[in-house]
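S.,

Sequence below, as promised.
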Amino acid sequence: MKTPYKNIYAVLKTNRFIVIAVISASTLSSLFSGWMVYNINDKALNNAFAISTEGSVIPLKLVTQKENFNIEALAHLELFHTYFYNIDASNYKKNLKKALWLGNSSVDNLYRQKKADGIYNRLLQFSLVQKVLSIESKIQHNNGTYSFETTTVFEINRGTIVDKYEMVCTGNLIFVDRNYPNNTHGLLITNYFEKSLKKVFNQNP
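The prediction came back faster than expected:
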């Protein structure tokens, strides 16, 4: 006898096909979404800021940043030594505040020691001008540790007398989060130590 209703097995077969199709589409959609998230995250992690040869901070790939670490480290050291030693009565507070952002407690302890010794008071009292003439740094990498040795030549202008000095400092560099504009290179000086200081005498030709 004919019936107006479809065969129950045909209906179930159709429903089963629809369910499988929906599940497959959902699975593919989830996999595609997961891949897109991973891809975006991977691209974000591989982008960073690095330093150009002119000392400007620019966005580059992380691998490029590692290749240019030496350039960025040298720029960081030059910036720190300029702030810390290129001082006079009008700018020493501002410069030293900037310098303290670039080093850890070893730099702060040295600053406090100099302050206790009256160095900055004499700077004010006698209107001394301490000017950096050159900064040369050497960086070494050993088992994941970055160490440096920096030679800074500066002069102290006492009005009628100008004396020149050469200072050699050592320390380490570690990576930290970049802080704009206080620490744009994302590096921090640790174990900072003024190794030697000597007066430089001009040699007559």
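Residues 8 and 14 are 10 Å apart (CA to CA).

Coffee later?
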